[in-house]
Every structure is written in structure tokens, then in C-alpha cells.
């Protein structure tokens, strides 16, 4: 079989041994360009996929059901079959009907000279359900200001879809991390009072 040519920023294409789909919450297959969960067909069981969570049948049932392994990762697929990563299910921000992954926004912010580290999360918003927030650790020589906030917002807006820019920017000295150095977005969400489920939007609002 012919291997796919690498495409910058893409995860690539699934290897032939696995049947992989991007699915909606109801288990239907997403359209091209539509964000959903990466799922792997389990019938027949492919090599390398776990059998179960050890002594945790409830967790196993939440991951493997209806013949699919639900990875908890979200992505979208382009017209050529390349997968593009969005983020973990728990980290995806649902804002005004859009599903926004923090990974893309964080990657763009880190390209700015003023940003040393950052974490993108959602904060409750009465109109949008959630608003995009960037928590930023600045590089040496930079100071947080309204002017810098507007500059960072414009930076993201011009490099991604306009609706993805962070409406809130908070400057901090350090980000909460695990012992392995992984940023704990959940700690930021908890501090901001953000639940995993988005508040119901007014009818007709997108």
C-alpha cells in the first residue's frame, strides 16, 4: 500500500490495519471538516488495543461500546483523508455552537515572542455557553497590559478562525502542572468555576 505523504500539522492517515472514524456523540460518522471523537473499530479486535481497564468495568464500558473504542481525543478529517488533532474531549471548549480545541490556539500563542507558556480553557459565559480564555506566562522582558492582550487576541484571530481568539487573557507567574510537567487545564477550569458541561444556550442562538 502507498504511504501517505506527510502534511504539516496533520496527524496523517490511519494505518491500514485499523478502521478509524471521526464520530459524533450519537455514534454517526462526521462529515469532512466536522470535529468529532476519534474511534477505532473493535470487531474484529485489532492488535495493540487494550482489553479492558484493570478492575474497572465501568470505565471500560465508557470507552468500549457499540463495537468501537472511543479514544477521548477529538479531530477532524480533510477531503484527502488526513486527520487533524483538536484536543481531548474534556478540554474541548463549546462556544456558541462551535467545538474549539485548545491545542491549536496554544500553538499559535506560543509563536508570539511575548509568550513563554500558555493554557487555553473555557470559562462560563451567559451568551456563548463558554468563552475562550488564555492563561499566559510571559517571556522575560514583557509585562501584561491591555495593549498586549489586544495584540495577542489579534495574533490568534489572524492565524485561526476569528471565533477562536481568546476573549479573556490572564497573566500568571506559573501554570499548574503535574509532577511530570504536564499543564493541568482542569485546575484552571476549577478555579474559574467551569463545569465540563456547557450551560444551555438561549434557543436559536449559535
In what range is the share of β-strand residues?
25-35%
Q: Supply the CATH class of the largest domain.
A: Alpha Beta
Total beta strands: 10
Can you summarize the main beta sheet? Answer: 5 strands, antiparallel
The total number of structural domains is 2
SSE ordering:
EEHEEEEEHEEHEH
The CATH architecture category of the largest domain equals 2-Layer Sandwich
Radius of gyration: 19 Å
Span between N and C termini?
A: 43 Å
CATH superfamily label of the largest domain: ANL, C-terminal domain
Mean pLDDT: 91
Overall geometry: globular
Approximate helicity band: 10-25%
CATH topology (level 3) name of the largest domain: GMP Synthetase, Chain A, domain 3
Low-confidence stretches: 196-206
Condensed summary:
The chain has 206 residues and is an alpha+beta fold. It is 17% helix and 29% strand.
Description:
- There is one protein chain.
- The chain has 206 residues and is an alpha+beta fold.
- It folds into two domains: 20-88, Luciferase, domain 3; 92-191, GMP Synthetase, Chain A, domain 3, CATH 3.30.300.30.
- The chain has four helices and ten strands.
- Strands 1, 2, 3, 4 and 5 form a five-stranded antiparallel β-sheet that branches. Strands 8-9-10 form a three-stranded mixed β-sheet. A two-stranded antiparallel sheet has the order 6-7.
- A hairpin with a 2-residue loop joins strand 3 (64-65) and strand 4.
- The protein is globular.
- Residues 196-206 have low confidence and may be disordered.
